Amino acid sequence: MTVYLVGAGPGDPGLITVRGLELVRRAEVLVFDRLIGDELLDEAPAGCVLIDASKRPDHHTMTQDEIDACLVEHGTAGRLVVRLKGGDPFVFGRGGEEALALSGAGVPFEVVPGITSAIAAPAYAGIPVTHRNVSAQLAIVTGHERPGKETSEIDWDVLARFRGTLVFLMGVGRLGEIAGALIEQGKDPATPAAVVQSGTLPAQHTVTGPLSQIAAIAHEAGIRAPAVTVVGDVAGLRDGIAWAETRPLHGRTIAVTRARAQSSVLVARLRELGARVVEAPTIRTETIEGPQLRGADYDLVCVTSPNAPRLLLDRLGGDARSLAGVRVAAIGPGTSAALRACGIVADLVSDRFVGEGLVDSLGDVTDTRVLVARAEEARDVLPDGLRAAGATVSVVPLYRTLREAPRDIAAVLAADVVAFSAASTVRNLAAALAGSDAGAVRAVSIGPVTSEAIRAHGFELVAEAAQHDLDGLVETIVERFGNRQPT
Ligand code: SAH
Fold first, then answer.
1. Between the N and C ends of the chain, which has fewer C-beta atoms within 10 Å?
2. Which residues sit opposite 7 in a β-bridge?
3. Cα 147 to ligand 1 centre (Å)
4. Is 38 buried (19+), middle (13-18) or exposed (0-12) by CB count in 10 A?
5. CA atoms of 436 and 18, how far apart (whole Å)
């Protein structure tokens, strides 16, 4: 088997390559560095052995020799080994040493390049490392070496004269010495400079200033590793190009409590708006098996949650035509959209998120045969209302929601806001908290039923979505918590 030296990209989990992600998903052994985020590690298959190269049982980091030996050992054992490294494996990543160790041991290996922080962090800060008529050259330099060392590997005099862009990795602590060495060798002290901390991540923070001041400015702002420093006129382009830090939810932390399977859309939307998202699923859904259903047995099918359409279709033998001629009603636009994804267009969508709304809008249902497709634990408002109106109702539970304690409760409590899209997730989070800290949960709710649960459990209800679906929830979060930037 092969050992893959894979670049994970600069931090944003979306910036790993397609090839890299595919290998992570197939890995049997994953050896990773300190800066690799949980989102990528979560992509490893169940049963994959995760080895943190930055942590030995004695809490020291593994030495490079130990890492090389570990790769050789697992590679020789015939496992699919992924060595996941920040940025690009060959840009100050010691990937070359690992490749040499593997080739020396006769272990087959491949290199999957990654997006380096040297280019991506400036890009996310609105700084193009080259720019027509501004910079035609790029040098990527380690900031690790102490300037003024007797035998320097770095040509400070050349860099001082270099008219292109300089990007320093590592060594934010040496910023003063680096700037000093450049200026001493003749670099203009007024040269624009920028330091980008945690580039491409939600915590990204950039400071700018002239080379002579940049160390003091970064120090003042509390800039820490990991950070890259850009020196050159391109740093001055940031004013017009900055984009990541001006997104509406940049700098905000939002906890999302939907079941993991359904949360992806919401999580992706919030991340695109710049938020740090803490995924805290408190529920997961479990399919309830049952006999096949026939659309012909019913006059009306009511679908009450976005989870139900896919499972309903399965129970109809995977053939949407089974519902030909049957009226279909959906509660809420999310359910209607999920039906559409299954090739079923609802005849009627309740404009209210609550079951009461649907009974009213169905018209005369006397002697109508109704199938209510829903969660096992759903409320009985709809079936009761239909029966009271003279319908024959079969309730078919398609799934049940099970409680799951969030992995990191502290992160949920520390979030600026917790987004609740169902009353069940409120109850489950409350159960996980077991009475403590309920008041620390600042909640945004998708609609009235969820809001009621939020109040009942002592959470602070900060806002309720005006429109009771995911779009409405996101909109309300942006309105209440977003940076008010001119657009
Ligand atoms: N192979 C990596 C670099 C490893 S050296 C790459 O290609 O990006 C580690 C240094 O990379 C850090 O000290 C810092 O200077 C830089 N770095 C890594 N991730 C970063 C990030 N998200 N933002 C800013 N700098 C980062």
1. C
2. 85
3. 20
4. exposed
5. 43
Lookup: tokens for 273 = 């708006």
How many Cβ atoms sit within 10 Å of the Cβ of residue 106?
Answer: 9
User: pLDDT tens for residues 366-424?
Assistant: 999 999 999 998 888 889 999 999 999 999 999 998 877 777 888 899 999 999 988 88
353 CA from centroid of ligand 1 (Å):
46
Going along 64-137, which residue ranges are E strands? 81-85, 109-112
Q: Give first-to-last CA distance, the chain, whole Å.
A: 52
The reply to whether ligand 1 has any atom less than 6 angstroms from the CB of 11 is yes
Name the 3-class secondary structure at 98.
helix
Say if CB 274 and CB 250 are below 8 A apart: yes
Whether ligand 1 lies within 6 angstroms of the CB of 263 is answered as no
- For a mutational test of ligand 1's pocket, the pick from 141, 175, 228, i.e. the residue with the most ligand atoms closer than 8 A to its C-beta, is 228
Q: Which pLDDT score is estimated for 95?
A: 96
Q: Which of 5, 115, 169 to mutate to test the pocket of ligand 1 (most atoms within 8 A of CB)?
A: 169
Strands 300-303 and 253-256, sheet pairing: unpaired
Task: Give the pLDDT score at 259.
Answer: 66
Residue 263 DSSP code:
H
Burial class (CB within 10 angstroms; exposed 0-12, middle 13-18, buried 19+) of 183: middle
Atom of ligand 1 nearest to the CA of 115: 7
What type of residue sits at position 126?
G
Q: Is the CB of 10 under 6 A from ligand 1?
A: yes
Cβ(121) – ligand 1 distance below 6 Å: yes
77-105 average pLDDT score: 96
By annotation, the residues acting in catalysis are: 33, 55, 170
Calculate what percentage of the chain has a pLDDT beyond 90. Answer: 76
Q: Count helices and strands (H / E) in the chain.
A: 18, 21
Rounded Cα–Cα distance for residues 104 and 20 (Å): 24
CA angle 251, 255, 259 (to 5 degrees): 145
Top mutation candidate among 115, 117, 197, 224 for ligand 1, by most atoms within 8 Å of CB: 117
Residue 229, ligand 1, Cβ within 6 A: no
Radius of gyration of the chain from Cα atoms?
Answer: 28
Reference 242, options 205, 210, 215; nearest CA is 205
Query: CA–CA separation, 487 vs 484, rounded Å?
Result: 9
Instruction: Write the DSSP symbol of residue 259.
Output: -
